[in-house]
């Protein structure tokens, strides 16, 4: 009967491949049970890597991204986020699915069949290197696509610009969150809309009207505690942080009404802090703006665009942290 | 002992590197200082262990061929039953409740805390917990010389 | 050709000749009944410094708090079953989710692992008579009990308990927005339990560094104890920061400082930075002990040694190191953090975690798996953590985080990882070491019912939450609109939650039955490998009267199965060591 020393040596030299079904039926000496060999496992890992990286690329090329329950996004930024999400979900399902199947296979294949002691191997350098290196490669890919997408999602036109670099008009909206409602100040148009969700089953709070196809630059601030500005169909959220002025751009591509809600716990009526965004054609938008002014819904802040005069001690950021030491210290 | 010196010094080195990267890529002071603190947390004890391990004899528990008999004799001083942890714990509880409910709790907290601190210290000086437990087999033994050096 | 292998001589660790020269025990364990005449009854409990008593106290206290927090969760789920339910008021609802999270995170998951099981098992696994600082150990427990009472007493004060979430973001948690003693009690409770954890961390480090038995080199320490060492270091890094932040917030609330308020020149987001510098290592402090439990259990029920021991050690250290650099991935939506830095480090944690998964699978591969309750729960952990971990990788990407932050997608993710670790792996450890701690077996059939109820309820509860989160349902909401279309998924999730709750009834019945109609466990009912299985169940006072030679990470297995010893474990034993030479070393003492 082989001793365990010899059995361990066999493992480190690489054992012969996967036992064929005929082998399993016979009583095997303890030295050859079960271990499939590094070459087989390596082929499997290569297939997994190819599937994990290839699937999202192939699907993306055909614009057949599965949604996996998310919104495809109605803004250009939201669509970029969606593509990244869909690709990552596909990768996750492939990789996670393979590990899941591996666990499932193991617990069925290696169920206790006899009192025979299994071979007491406890490492295999080549396989260990393999399953270290492959996750590194997958992570590198994910990070690469993440950085590209994130730069696109967070890109903003310069503050106070009225047109983008390509000549698209910019609408500036200052969004103020407060306990427990929202205020939308259209700084260039002298329109101000504010509201809180009142009790009632289908009231969706104040509505922010925006033009389709133009760039909307949001300046997000808070009057009191932290709130979350979140619109599911934009695939986007950002905190309204007291002491911080957040900027982000939204380029809405499809007309429609999109629900939004506060996502950061802000006190008693957090679940009631609803709002909505309605995207309409630019012509209709300007008609709407004139009607709002006529109805007296004007800006509640005096003076010119509030973006020129942020409150003191405010950190201004477009989402990716501070770009200079001066910004970090609050001198803008 | 060298191995934990390396382990802790390695932690310190890791945080020093990450802290450096963080400082030059973001301008955020709070996180940077916390990373510096963590680096020091690793470097201080790590360098101490590395320095000491050079001066010490190899320990039985670091010797892969050591026999159990090499650890024969008293291992350490292990205090037995002692009321003082409970007293100290209650003192801490009432101390924080003083902050919440008012100064009227302060005398109780102070009494418990002080008597606990004094009691625990006196107990240690006497070489073990008072009372019946003093007859416990490890209550008053002193350690072998190597272990005193590390204790 | 066969070799007859004799078991090595057993050597007692306490030879005559020490200063007090007490006689060796005639029978293991009986000696202590003769000598140990300490206080009895409740005075024994109040004054005990024995790590076994303290460990059991921690486990009982934390399990009681687990069930309380679980009931809070069931009330939350009941409220969310219908859109505009008014089962509880908004204020009560906010208190419920805050206290559910706080009890689970601060008072159950951590203390059960490092105060409870680790306190009991680590000294046994390294061959020590007790923890390095027994009175400090006892103090840790009393601080923990005091802290738990403090937090729960929030419900008894006017204004109710804390209601700002377990993370207590400023400025919601300042005196203006959260007046009342409930918030102060919550903060003070964190101060007490924080120090409890710090002292336990100190104790674990000192015990594992100094009190190992001869021959137990660092690379022969069982992985559970290794993980506890790394956890202890993380505790020392993270909890002092929490304490500092809590003190600062308390000063803002009561002593007129303006650290976190804009009006006084403060920076609210500083709270988040400080909290999450603690908070992210905290979730790894919660996870690593449970990883360690599973890593000790799977080899036993596979009848093979752990695959990739050194890889596990380095993976654990990598996870811990990286976890301290990723805190701001909880703050991606603030707009003031350096996104690529934290994103990259967060992605990188997936690599050592993957290594651990493959090592667990490699341990089972080629083994003879038997599926007693501890193994069932460990496999349940593997599945639960796999999915929770993969969704975590998604959240490491800032754009994906923008679309899922503070929605039920995140709620589902962290419940899957936390229940995977603290509940599946935690109960695996409890079922595994219960015979050692109490000397009796838990019933297998009830254990299996517990497992299947938990496993089924777990998926039924959390899969709909992923869907509803992607559909836009935020977290921490007491109500939603019927027009949202989230009702059906919430109903399904609630059903799952109640199945989970019901499964614990089997656990409680199991405990009762095992107590009233005990089946003696013997020293080693599972044929385990760690040193703890060498002594009696329960262990005698000061744990060991005899120890086997320690030549691998499975000394008890090597002693019981000399023909299937672990070779190559630990870098000092060379392949050239023939069995006879190794035996000579053991027998020569």
- The average pLDDT of chain C is 88
CA gyration radius of chain A, whole angstroms: 29 Å
Total number of distinct structural domains of chain A = 3
Q: What is the correct CATH architecture of chain C?
A: Up-down Bundle
| Straight-line N-to-C gap of chain A | 80 Å
- In CATH terms, the superfamily of chain C is Cytochrome c oxidase-like, subunit I domain
Relative helix content of chain C: 55-70%
Profile the largest sheet of chain C: none
First CA to last CA of chain C: what distance? 28 Å
Number of helices of chain C: 17
Segments of chain A where pLDDT lies below 50 for 5+ residues? 1-36, 301-314, 327-332
Coarse shape of chain A = elongated
* Count of structural domains of chain C: 1
Structural class of the secondary elements of chain C?
Answer: mainly alpha
Describe the global form of chain C: globular
Strand portion of chain A? 15-25%
Biggest sheet statistics of chain A = 6 strands, mixed
Structure description:
The complex is a heterotrimer of chains A (332), B (151) and C (589). Chain A has 332 residues and is α/β, with parallel strands linked by helices. Chain A has three domains: 2-59; 67-108 and 124-155; 170-304 and 313-319, Immunoglobulin-like, CATH 2.60.40. Chain A is built from seven helices and eleven strands. Chain A has helices spanning 4-12, 21-25, 38-61, 76-109, 125-154, 282-294, 325-329, and strands spanning 170-178, 181-186, 191-196, 207-211, 215-222, 227-231, 236-240, 244-251, 256-262, 274-280, 315-317. In chain A, helix 3 packs antiparallel against helix 4, helix 3 packs parallel to helix 5 and helix 4 runs antiparallel to helix 5 (125-154). The longest helix of chain A is centred in the first third of the chain and has 34 residues, at 76-109. Residues 1-36, 301-314 and 327-332 of chain A have low confidence and may be disordered. Chain B has 151 residues and is mainly alpha-helical. In chain B, 40% of the residues are buried. Residues 130-151 of chain B have low confidence and may be disordered. Chain C has helices at 30-35, 41-47, 51-80, 90-126, 134-152, 181-210, 223-254, 268-302, 309-323, 339-364, 373-395, 398-404, 408-438, 444-470, 487-516, 555-560, 579-587. Chain C has 589 residues and is an all-alpha fold. Chain C has a single domain (50-574), classed as Cytochrome c oxidase-like, subunit I domain (Cytochrome C Oxidase, Chain A), CATH 1.20.210. Chain C is 63% helix and 0% strand. Chains in contact: A-B, A-C, B-C. At the A-C interface, helix 1, helix 4, helix 5, strand 7 and strand 9 of A face helix 4, helix 8, helix 9, helix 10 and helix 11 of C.
């Amino acid at each position: 009967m082989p001793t365990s020393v010899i059995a361990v040596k066999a493992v480190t030299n690489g054992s012969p491949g996967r036992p064929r079904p005929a082998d399993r039926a016979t009583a095997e000496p303890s030295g050859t049970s079960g271990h499939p060999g590094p070459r087989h496992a390596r082929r499997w890992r290569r297939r997994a890597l190819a599937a994990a990286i290839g699937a999202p690329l192939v699907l993306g090329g055909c614009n057949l991204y599965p949604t996996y329950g998310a919104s495809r996004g109605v803004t250009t930024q939201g669509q970029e986020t969606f593509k990244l999400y869909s690709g990552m979900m596909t990768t996750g399902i492939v990789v996670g699915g393979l590990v899941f199947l591996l666990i499932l296979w193991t617990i069925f294949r290696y169920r206790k069949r006899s009192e025979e002691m299994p071979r007491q191997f406890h490492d295999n350098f080549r396989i260990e290197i393999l399953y270290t290196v492959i996750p590194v490669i997958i992570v590198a890919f994910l990070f690469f696509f993440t950085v590209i997408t994130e730069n696109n999602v967070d890109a903003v036109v310069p503050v106070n610009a009225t047109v983008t670099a390509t000549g698209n008009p910019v609408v500036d909206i200052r969004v103020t969150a407060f306990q427990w409602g929202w205020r939308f100040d259209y700084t260039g148009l002298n329109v101000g809309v504010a509201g809180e969700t009142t009790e009632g089953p289908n009231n969706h709070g104040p509505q922010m009207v925006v033009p389709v196809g133009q760039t909307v630059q949001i300046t997000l601030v808070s009057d009191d505690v932290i709130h979350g500005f979140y619109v599911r169909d934009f695939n986007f959220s950002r905190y309204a942080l007291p002491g911080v002025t957040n900027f982000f751009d939204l380029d809405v591509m499809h007309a429609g009404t999109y629900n939004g809600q506060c996502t950061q716990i802000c006190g008693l009526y957090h679940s009631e802090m609803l709002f909505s965004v309605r995207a309409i054609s630019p012509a209709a938008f300007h008609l709407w703006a004139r009607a709002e002014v006529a109805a007296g819904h004007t800006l509640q802040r005096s003076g010119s665009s509030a973006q020129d005069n942020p409150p003191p001690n405010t950190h201004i950021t477009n989402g990716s942290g501070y770009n200079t030491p001066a910004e970090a210290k609050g001198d803008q | 002992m060298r191995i934990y010196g390396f382990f802790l010094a390695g932690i310190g080195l890791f945080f020093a590197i990450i802290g450096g990267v963080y400082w030059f890529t973001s301008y955020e002071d709070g996180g940077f200082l916390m990373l510096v603190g963590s680096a020091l947390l690793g470097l201080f004890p790590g360098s101490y262990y590395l320095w000491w391990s050079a001066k010490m004899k190899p320990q039985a528990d670091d010797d892969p061929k050591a026999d159990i008999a090499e650890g024969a004799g008293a291992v350490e001083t292990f205090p037995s039953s002692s009321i003082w942890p409970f007293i100290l714990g209650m003192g801490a509880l009432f101390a924080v409740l003083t902050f919440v409910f008012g100064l009227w709790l302060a005398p109780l907290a102070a009494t418990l805390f002080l008597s606990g601190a004094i009691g625990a210290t006196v107990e240690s000086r006497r070489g073990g917990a008072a009372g019946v437990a003093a007859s416990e087999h490890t209550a008053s033994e002193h350690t072998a010389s190597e272990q005193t050096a590390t204790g | 050709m066969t070799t007859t292998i004799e078991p090595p001589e057993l050597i007692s660790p306490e030879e005559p000749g020490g200063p007090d020269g007490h006689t060796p025990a005639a029978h293991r364990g009986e000696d202590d009944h003769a000598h140990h005449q300490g206080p009895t009854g409740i005075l024994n409990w109040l004054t005990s410094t024995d790590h076994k008593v303290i460990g059991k106290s921690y486990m009982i206290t934390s399990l009681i708090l687990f069930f309380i927090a679980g009931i809070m969760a069931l009330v939350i789920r009941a409220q969310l079953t219908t859109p505009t339910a008014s089962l509880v008021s908004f204020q009560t609802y906010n208190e419920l989710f805050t206290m559910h999270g706080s009890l689970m995170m601060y008072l159950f998951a951590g203390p059960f692992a490092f105060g409870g099981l680790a306190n009991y098992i680590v000294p046994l696994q390294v061959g020590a008579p007790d923890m390095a600082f027994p009175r400090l150990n006892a103090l840790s427990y009393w601080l923990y009990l005091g802290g738990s009472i403090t937090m729960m007493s929030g419900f008894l004060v006017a204004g109710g308990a804390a209601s700002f979430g377990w993370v207590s973001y400023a400025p919601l948690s300042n005196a203006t927005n959260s007046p009342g003693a409930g918030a102060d009690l919550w903060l003070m409770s964190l101060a007490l339990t924080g120090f409890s954890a710090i002292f336990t961390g100190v104790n674990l480090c000192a015990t594992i560094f100094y009190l190992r038995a001869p021959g137990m080199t660092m690379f022969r320490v069982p992985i559970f104890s290794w993980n506890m060492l790394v956890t202890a270091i993380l505790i020392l890094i993270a909890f002092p920061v929490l304490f500092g932040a809590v003190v600062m917030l308390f000063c803002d609330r009561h002593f007129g400082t303006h650290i976190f308020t804009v009006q006084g020149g403060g920076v609210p987001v500083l709270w988040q930075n400080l909290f999450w510098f603690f908070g992210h290592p905290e979730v790894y402090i919660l996870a690593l002990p449970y990883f360690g439990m599973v890593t000790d259990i799977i080899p036993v029920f596979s009848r093979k040694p752990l695959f990739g021991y050194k890889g596990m050690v380095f993976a654990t250290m990598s996870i811990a190191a990286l976890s301290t650099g990723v805190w701001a991935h909880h703050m991606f939506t603030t707009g003031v953090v350096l996104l690529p830095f934290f994103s990259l480090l967060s992605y990188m944690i997936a690599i050592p975690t993957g290594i651990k998964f493959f090592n667990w699978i490699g341990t089972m591969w080629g083994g003879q798996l038997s599926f007693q309750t501890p193994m069932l729960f460990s496999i349940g952990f593997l599945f639960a953590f796999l999915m929770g971990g993969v969704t975590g990788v998604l959240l490491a990407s800032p754009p994906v985080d923008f679309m899922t932050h503070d929605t039920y997608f995140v709620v589902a993710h962290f419940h899957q990882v936390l229940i995977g670790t603290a509940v599946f792996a935690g109960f695996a450890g409890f079922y595994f070491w219960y015979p050692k701690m109490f000397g009796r077996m838990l019933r297998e059939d009830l254990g299996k019912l517990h497992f299947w109820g938990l496993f089924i309820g777990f998926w039924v509860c959390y899969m709909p939450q992923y869907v509803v989160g992607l559909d836009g349902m935020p977290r921490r909401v007491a109500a939603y609109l019927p027009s949202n279309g989230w009702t059906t998924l919430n109903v399904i999730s609630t059903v799952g939650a109640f199945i989970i709750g019901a499964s614990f009834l089997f656990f409680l019945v199991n405990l009762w039955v095992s107590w009233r109609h005990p089946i003696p466990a013997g020293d080693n009912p599972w044929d385990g490998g760690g040193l703890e299985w060498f002594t009696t169940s329960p262990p005698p006072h000061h744990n060991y009267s005899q120890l086997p030679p320690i030549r691998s990470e499975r000394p008890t297995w090597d002693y019981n199965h000399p023909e299937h010893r672990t070779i190559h474990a630990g870098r000092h034993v060379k392949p050239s060591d023939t069995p006879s030479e190794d035996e000579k070393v053991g027998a020569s003492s």
